[in-house]
Every structure is written in C-alpha cells, then in structure tokens.
Records
---
Amino acid sequence: MSDIVTFGETMLRLSPPRGERLERTSELGVRTGGAESNVAVAAARLGRDATWISKLPDSALGRRIVSELRSHGVRTDVAWDGSDDARLGTYYLEHGGEPRGTEVIYDRAGASVTTATPAELPVGTLDDASVCYTSGITPALSPTLAETTDALLRAARETGTTTAFDLNYRGKLWSPMKAGECYESLFPHIDLLFAAERDAATCLGREGDPIEVANGLLRDFDFETVVLTRGDSGSVAVHDGEVYEQDVYDAETFDPIGTGDAFVGGFLAKRLDGGDVPDALAYGAATASLKRTVDGDLAVVTPAEVDAVVERSAGGISR
C-alpha cells in the first residue's frame, strides 16, 4: 500500500556549468526532473510511502530515471517501451542572473510517456493508495495523456482514493484557453486543488483577492480543499469552511526549479501524517524553502531539517 501515487513524465535535465552558455559549453550536468516524481521524492524523503507510475523507454536512459527515484525511496511502477522509436524527454536549463534570466529548452516531443494508456499502466496501484496526484503538465503533453489522466483520476475516485491536482501551467506546452478547458473537465474528479495564483488568473480568469479566489474555486467546483500559492507572498488554503494563510520562509536561493513541487510534496506528506491544513501549509513552505538551497529539481531534504525551519518560524501561520 502506498500513501501517495503520482503519475506523470520524468525527464533528464541537462545544464551547463553556472555562468556558461549552452551554445558554448563543453560539458553538461545531468539531473532528473518531473513535477510528479519531484512530489513523490519530497514525500518519500519526508517519511511517506510514495510510488511513481509512468511509461519509460526500455533503455539506459529509462533505467537512469528509475535508479535515481529509487535512491530517494520512491517505488517505481512503469510500463517499459521497447519500440524502435522509444525515447525519453529531456530539457536543457541554462542558469542566468538578471537581466538575462534562466532559459529552459524542452526536447520532449514524442517521448514514450505521451503514448501511455490506462491499459498498460499499473492502475491497480491506486486501489490501496491514500492519495493520487498528478499535475496539469501531464494532460498537456498529448491527447492520449489527457484521456489517460482523466481515466486515472476517475479510477482513483472510484476506489475512495483522495485525488490531488496542481494546475502547473506551462505556456510552452499549450494555450491558456486550451489548458483552462482541460482543467475544468478534470475538476469533477479532484478533491484537493493546488494552484499558483498566476495560473488561476491566466487559465481560469480568477483574479482579485486571493482568499476570494480560493473560496470561489472551492465553491464553484466542489473541491474539499483549495491551496493557492502566491510566490513571495506565501500561500492561502480554504478547507472545511476555514481560511488559512502561510508566509514563505526565507531562503538563500541556489536553484529555484522544483520549489512548487517541493511545497506540494511537503504539504501532502504532512497531511498523510495526520497534520491539519495549517500544519501542512507550514510543512510545505518549509520544504519549498529548503529545496531552493539545493541544486537540481529534487527536494533532497530530511524531516529534521523541515521541522527545524518550522520551529524557528513558529509565528508564520495565521488562521
């Protein structure tokens, strides 16, 4: 039995040394990254039993992904693609300070995961799971994955598993209108919604006071819980008729990639451990702050480190 099962694409991230340009570098560092596996890693490192399901090429690259995730305590249950055109998605990340900024280049079209169907995925893994999680990145990757995402969320709901979903809008994958239509088609199958404030505005047209936005989403789509993340302004959650707000915890940022996933992983880990919503917000915020100090997409943290951040800033929660 898994506390949490996540479903989505995991890629290899290729980056030049800091300060070098992709067009000139002679070396690339290799990391593993994907929203849903990032969440699974954070939850596993914080003591929860986490399983990641997906489809991978039956190759050294696919095995690299499995090996990395397992090294962080995540169980992997994948469909292996042995076809001649099987491939793993990659993305190139070039760190850059202002005014240049960080550049991301995707090379993920046609990845094996884009053909994944419910029939070939281990749907039975959801039967005994407490939470099933995926994000808006997954249905953006192909029409097949949009259908599979819908089917998995429905299957999880039918077994009584709590379903959690993060909008996670990516403008390089689809338009706001198409994303919004897909999100709203999935909302009837979702219990817990995570949404960045900017994504709710861009794709759902939900703008204004964050508490009103969160309450509006919960009311209009009958979610159990809505968590609205607000960047440096912290987060807001509505649950069971109550509103909770959480500040961010200060961090010296070394690598911000994966911060949102770390927040989700920390939040879910605390809820699965019996914590209430305000405690989960604090745990998510602390996990996110620690992730910013670590290179790569993954929140390589420990429960003791997260507890220490929360305890040092015990006044960060408002109810």
---
Amino acid sequence: MEEINKLSYAIIGAAYKVHSSLGPGLLESTYEVCLEYELLKIGLKVERQKLLPVFYNEIVLDAGYRVDLLVEDSIIVELKAVADVAPIHRAQLMTYLKLADLPLGLLINFNVTDLKQGINRIIM
C-alpha cells in the first residue's frame, strides 16, 4: 500500500501543477490531456480513456466503460470540471474500482478555486 500512496501523492502533485497553471473553468478533456502529459513527464505509465470491460455471468461487454486515466495499472483517475461533485460521481468511481479490482481511485474536480477541495480519494 505504501507504493500506491506514493503514486497517489505524485498524481495529486501533477494535478496541482495543472490546476495552478490553467485554473478552473475549462473542459474536463483539457485537464485530462494536461494531466496525462504531466504524469508521462515524470515517467509514469498512463493510459487515457482506457476501456474497462464489464463481466456479467457469461456476458462480456468489451467496451463497457472508459476510465479517464489509468496510472501504472494501479490507480484510476476520474476527472471532473463541474460545480459540485455529486454522489453518483463517487459511486461511478467505486464501480470502476470494483470492475478493475483495484484498491484506490482519485476523483479530481478541477472546477474549484482551491484544488484541495476538489480531490476525493476512494479506497476499496
């Protein structure tokens, strides 16, 4: 879990860098590309818009969902640019973590003046 926490810290640091440079008010896709760039720059493996299959009994939906960023095959990062993060956003990330069998996800809302208020760590 120590490695996951270090990785989480690096992701949050990169998000702060993006937010301090761009500020709030842009499209989610803009923050996504810029955060991917910052994470790649520090040497992390990042997959953007990663397909997440859904398994239900014998059915496999290959293109079930897409996660915004999957970092080091360990942490799902879901990005928002909304006035308020709704409970459904947290629930969505929890479902993604369950489907991917991962322990930690970050839900980051860039549409805030202080990014600290926009960071949600979800632990399964």
---
Amino acid sequence: MNFLCSWSGGKDSTYAFFKAMKLGYKPKVLLNVMNELGERSRSHGIPKGILQAQSKSIGLPIHFFSSSWGDYETNYIKHLKEIARQYPITHTVFGDIDIEFHREWEEKVSKAANLKAVLPLWQGNRRELVLEMIDVGIEAIIVSCNEVLGPRFLGKIITKELVEELENMGIDACGENGEFHTLVVNAPFFKYRLCVEILENQQNGNYNFALLK
C-alpha cells in the first residue's frame, strides 16, 4: 500500500495524493518528468526549484528525469523500475479523471515496473472534484493557459467564483482539456504555504505561461 505519486505540482495530482492517503495508501516518493533541458516540468512548465519546494513542504523526496515526448514512455518505465528498487512502493498514484487512454497508459507503465496504478479521482464529476479540492483546503493558482483565457488569468487562485466564471466562458472547470494548468501553493498535507511570485508573463504559440519564482 506504499505509493509513488506522479506529481505535476498541480491540483489534480495533489488531490489524488490526498485521496489516496484517505484510502489508506502511504506516500513514499514523488515523480516529475522535466523537459529536455531539465529546467521546467514537461506537463505544466513549473520550474524545478518550485517542485522541490513543494516536496520539502510535503516532507517527501522527489525524483526527476528529463525526457522528450518521443522517448517518454521508455524513460518513464526505466525510472519507475529504478525508484521501485530504492523505495518500498507497491502502487503508483495518478490524477487523471476520465480520459481512458491516459488510464490505459498509466496502467501499462506501472505494470511494466511491477506496480499497480491507482486513480483516486477516476470517473469523478469534474466540477464537483474542483469544488471538493477547494473545500479541503487545496490552494492552486493558474500558471499557464490557452489564448481563450489569455494572460489575465495567470496567477488567479482557483476559487468557487472562478470556477463559475470559467464555466460561463465555456471552459472546463478542471481544465482537463488542456485549457489551463495550475500550481498548488498549499494543501492539507503541506507543512507550510509556498510563497510564489510571478515575474512576468510569457507566450509560446497560443499558450501563456507565468515565469515563476
């Protein structure tokens, strides 16, 4: 019942971590995949230093590796196996909600490392999950978003009022379709709140990113 959490630094992986503990699983280590330069996370574009600050607040080690999308799966399995040799883990925890091919991939790579995938948020109602996260004390800010939202949404805290605003714009409350990504600065299992500053807004193609410190 010991688990590795696939840790993006965002709200979904944080809430999956929280719910896994409520189900009786014991956290041992976090795993994050960085871009080829090893500077930012592959999924959310979060700097390595901030992810390390999260792991320190949680009180768990975090394992990083860099990868392109082309060799992502091969590298993921390789590092899962390495971590399983270092830590007494039996399960992997992921924050996916309802995208079936994501679940299939997570089960596949976990099985390759003799681990069992657990998805505590699976088949939950997207809107209800976000409201639950807020209620339990997960504080998340938007750190990247598409052009529909635009740079004015960078740095906004996910609140019930913001959820309503997003839905009125036709944006999924969870951002599950890639509309936005978040960074968690506080959670019930954090020892302290992270103080994160947005230095500037950057744009890459049709996506907006916050340069974080």
---
Amino acid sequence: MERKCKICSSPLKGRADKIFCSTDCKNHYHKHLRYEAKKAAIEINSYLKRNYSILSELLGENKAQVKVYRNVLEKKRFRFKYHTHFHINSHNKMFHYLYDIAWMEFSDDEILIVRKR
C-alpha cells in the first residue's frame, strides 16, 4: 500500500512514519490547526463577555445580589453552559462564576446573581 501526504495526497518517499510530502504541506496543516484553536477561543470568549455583561446589567453597580427569573436571562440570550469556574458551598449549592460575578439556580425558575468582592 502506497503512503500518501495528509494534505495533498502525493506519494511519500523516505521514512515509514512520514506524514507530509513537503515543508509547505506540513506548515499548511499546522497553520490550519492553530487557526481552528484560535477561532474556538474567540467564540467562547465572546460568549463569556456577553454572559458577564448580562449579569452586570441585571445586578447593577450598587447591589451585592439580586434574584431574577430564568426566562429573563433566556430572553437576553444568556448561555448557561459558559462560565469561568464554579464553587459548591456548604449547603451543596453550585455557584457558576463569570470572573467576579456568580449565579446560582435558586429554584426551578429563579436565578440568584451575586457579586463577589
């Protein structure tokens, strides 16, 4: 069975573990990998920024915490699966953090938003 280049399908000559026929094909492959990783990071970061601005807007500047209905967040296109980290408190409740602002499912349809200082 003839081995072929991963990019251009040219026949490979040389080492048995060779994957690319030339430096150009190798560079093209790795450049594409870096581009895909960067694109994913940009997309996720935009979701995090949007979520943070939604929580900031609802919390206001002077409040430490506020309760809102889940559908308020959904209408603003809040993405519940994107957060920076989480913490489980002593009451076994999970706080989802976006940098210094956390949210917790208070009940089935209420969300508690808290600013941690």
